[in-house]
């Protein structure tokens, strides 16, 4: 439960409420508030899909299909739209919560798009600081680095390709058990740097400096932020990635795909992909998204 939610709403007197996450009992409280104040617009956004939710029998059949579905269905008459962030989330909402198509609306995770001048400034400064010139291809991998993210596979694939023009920067937090593996690669391959955890504004600057962002598994907002900041992405071919990114990225399904990518990627290929990116950037630009949804 969300302590004091009713009192906060009464005190704040919102015109619009966006409830983050469809799997929540407290949607009942907001529903009661909308019943009392029907002029307030109520939206729910969902990030659930079969990769991150309802993965066990109890979770799927008791928590999601009974509790959360019942709460959401009971209050659906008060909800203007249920936003979904990916195609996989849309499927989950329809199959698990039984949300009708006419209630669903696409609201992608996005990012802030820097000006060309801002991007070039941070790109030049950071690459100078790292000793990386315009002939190098800078790859970045970030997040909570664990087996699901396949960080080890990225390190192994990169180390197998002996190219002097490639650089790999790892940013994020790692489990203690993975530290010896990371240290081993850092010792053996001087092209790899591990920078630890970075604040959001710092990560954004590294994304502006990078040429290729690698996300082997999972979905996160950093992928969209990478695109917004001018980096080309290499991602797993989830249906939502294929639908959103189309041919503007590189798809990696197995280690062999990543080894091939590291072996064949060129600055010209990156430029070619970047030329396809503007339409995607427009779709993910938070300034444009906010103006669109004002209407």
Verbal overview:
The chain has about 300 residues and is of the alpha/beta class. It is about 50% helix and about 15% strand. The chain has 14 helices and ten strands. It has helices at about 5-10, 25-35, 55-75, 85-95, 115-130, 150-160, 180-190, 200-210, 220-230, 240-245, 255-265, 265-275, 280-285, 285-295; strands at about 15-20, 40-45, 80-85, 105, 135-145, 165-175, 190-195, 210-215, 230-235, 250. The protein is elongated and about 65 Å long. It starts with a helix and ends with a helix.
Largest sheet: 6 strands, parallel
Percent of residues in helices comes to 40-55%
Number of helices: 14
DSSP E strands, number: 10
Low-confidence stretches: none
What would the principal axes of the Cα set say about the shape? Answer: elongated
Radius of gyration: 22 Å
Averaged pLDDT: 93
Strand share of the residues?
15-25%
Distance between the termini: 32 Å
SSE class: alpha/beta
**Spatial strand arrangement across the major sheet:** 7-6-5-8-9-10
Sequence of secondary-structure elements: HEHEHEHEHEHEHEHEHEHEHHHH
């Amino acid at each position: 439960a969300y302590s004091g939610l009713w009192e906060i709403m009464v005190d704040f007197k919102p015109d619009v409420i966006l409830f983050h996450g469809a799997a929540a009992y407290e949607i009942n409280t907001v529903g009661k508030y909308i019943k009392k104040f029907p002029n307030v617009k109520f939206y729910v956004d969902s990030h659930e899909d079969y990769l991150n939710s309802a993965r066990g029998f109890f979770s799927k059949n008791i928590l999601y299909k009974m509790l959360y579905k019942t709460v959401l269905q009971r209050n659906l008459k008060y909800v203007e739209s249920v936003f979904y962030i990916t195609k996989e989330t849309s499927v989950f909402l329809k199959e698990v919560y039984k949300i009708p198509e006419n209630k669903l609306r696409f609201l992608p995770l996005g990012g802030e798009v820097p000006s060309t001048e801002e991007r070039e400034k941070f790109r030049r400064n950071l690459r100078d600081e790292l000793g990386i010139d315009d002939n190098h291809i800078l790859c970045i991998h970030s997040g909570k680095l664990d087996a699901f993210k396949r960080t080890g596979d990225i390190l192994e694939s990169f180390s197998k390709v002996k190219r002097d023009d490639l650089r790999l920067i790892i940013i994020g937090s790692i489990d203690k058990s993975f530290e010896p593996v990371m240290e081993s690669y850092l010792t053996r391959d001087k092209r790899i740097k591990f920078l630890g955890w970075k604040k959001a504004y710092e990560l954004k600057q590294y994304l502006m400096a990078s040429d290729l962002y690698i996300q082997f598994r999972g979905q996160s907002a950093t992928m969209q932020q990478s695109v917004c900041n001018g980096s080309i992405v290499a991602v797993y071919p989830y249906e939502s990635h294929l639908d959103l990114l189309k041919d503007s990225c590189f798809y990696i399904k197995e280690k062999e795909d990543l080894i091939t990518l590291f072996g064949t990627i060129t600055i010209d290929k990156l430029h070619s992909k970047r030329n396809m990116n503007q339409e995607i950037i427009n779709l993910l630009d938070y300034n444009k998204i906010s103006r669109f949804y004002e209407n």
